[in-house]
Design brief:
By secondary structure, the chain is α/β, with parallel strands linked by helices. The protein is built from 9 helices and 13 strands. The protein has helices spanning about 1-15, 85-100, 140-155, 175-190, 220-225, 250-255, 270-280, 305-310, 345-355, and strands spanning about 25-30, 30-35, 40, 45, 50, 55-60, 105-110, 155-165, 195-200, 235-240, 260, 290, 315.
């Protein structure tokens, strides 16, 4: 009986213990990011453009992915083993992180409910760190903790999404959503992580089931996270909007930084116009970050990456496996090859290395 009681208490101990002091802290001054009180890419210029203070990133939302729906899990088997393995996915994610950093990547987006494992669309899979009441699942949290620890070791920032519109329906009600927000926020702070930027939900203007996750009310949850303080620390928070959508004034005003997406913004002219309209709603200096854009063509001076950078907007790569492409392609399609393996991945990382280092 004593052994049984100890086993029952283990998950509680896992979620309540505080870890040792972490080594990476992200902060914001005006419209610039700092890591450990030093501007990112300190002193760096590229083609006459200031680079320091930006936060180049990539959408890597499936780092802790699993599918608990047995009817859909076979969609995600590895080509070599013909089985799905959530721990293998996280192991290979962690193994690739040092190479990403070596090419100049300062941050990546992870989401507690993933993203579409096909790139776009949702078809029955269940992938969520939260149970129906908003409690944290131990297996997901164990994988998350390993990634956060490696990011801390590498002085990398994690843009951590709490909710995804293809999975929020598995939370029972608004009370469960609020409970989930409180639980994960407190867990991050109690474990001492200071390298986290919170993306409250991915594209708050798209298809959420719960009213509090929609544009009209999501600022309530942003404020709730900001108002949670443990040991003198609080988290920096924002939320994102669908491709080409300007954040609402209320969200822009309350957020610590501005998150936008470049999907659907297909030309330099449209990107410049989009960025200008976003800047119009930013009434006090804040960093503007694109953390999802599925436009490539990195050899062109008019690609979205270069265009955003020259407007002093941090840019983020979004890549998925397209029709008839092999396993090495994409960072969102499950199963994921997390290495810099495809020609498209190499093109992005080489361009980022040119901008940040060469």
């Amino acid at each position: 009986m004593k052994k049984l009681l100890l086993l029952l208490l283990l998950p509680i101990a896992f979620f309540s213990c505080a870890d040792s002091k972490k080594s990476t802290k992200v902060s914001i001054t005006g419209n610039q990011f700092l890591i450990n009180d030093e501007l990112t890419y300190k002193g760096r210029e590229w083609e006459g453009q200031k680079i320091e203070g930006l936060l180049f990133n990539s959408r890597m939302v499936q780092g802790i992915f699993d599918d608990t729906n047995p009817e859909t899990q076979d969609n995600f088997v590895y080509p070599d083993t013909k089985t799905w393995d959530a721990d293998r996915n996280t192991n290979e994610f962690i193994a690739a992180m040092s190479d990403w950093k070596a090419h100049g990547l300062s941050a990546f987006t992870l989401n507690l409910q993933g993203g579409s494992p096909l790139g776009y669309g949702n078809k029955g899979w269940i992938n969520t760190t939260f149970d129906s009441k908003g409690e944290l699942k131990a297996d997901y949290m164990a994988r998350l903790e390993r990634i956060l620890n490696k990011a801390d070791e590498l002085n990398m920032v994690v843009i951590l999404g709490y909710f995804y519109f293809g999975q929020d329906q598995f939370l029972d009600d608004e009370a469960a959503v609020i409970n989930a927000v409180d639980n994960i926020t407190k867990w991050i702070l109690e474990h001492g992580y200071t390298n986290i930027l919170v993306e409250l939900n991915n594209e708050s203007n798209i298809q959420y089931d719960h009213e509090i996750l929609k544009v009209a009310r999501v600022h309530e949850l942003i404020k709730r996270v900001q108002d949670t303080e443990i040991n003198g620390n609080r988290l920096l928070v924002s939320t994102s909007f669908g491709g080409g959508t300007v954040p609402s004034q209320k969200v822009a005003d309350v957020s610590d930084f501005i998150l936008i997406h470049g999907n659907g913004v297909k030309t330099q002219t449209k990107m410049l116009s989009f960025i200008e309209r976003v800047k119009d709603v930013v009434k006090t200096p804040k960093p503007i970050v694109i953390n999802e854009d599925d436009h490539f063509n990195f050899e062109s001076d008019t690609c979205n990456f270069v265009t955003a950078t020259k407007q002093y907007v941090s840019w983020g790569y979004f890549d998925f496996r397209m029709k008839d492409e092999g396993f090495e392609n994409g960072f969102q399609s499950v199963p994921v090859d997390w290495a810099i393996s495809s020609e498209r991945k190499k093109s992005f990382f080489n361009k980022m290395k040119e901008i940040t280092q060469e």
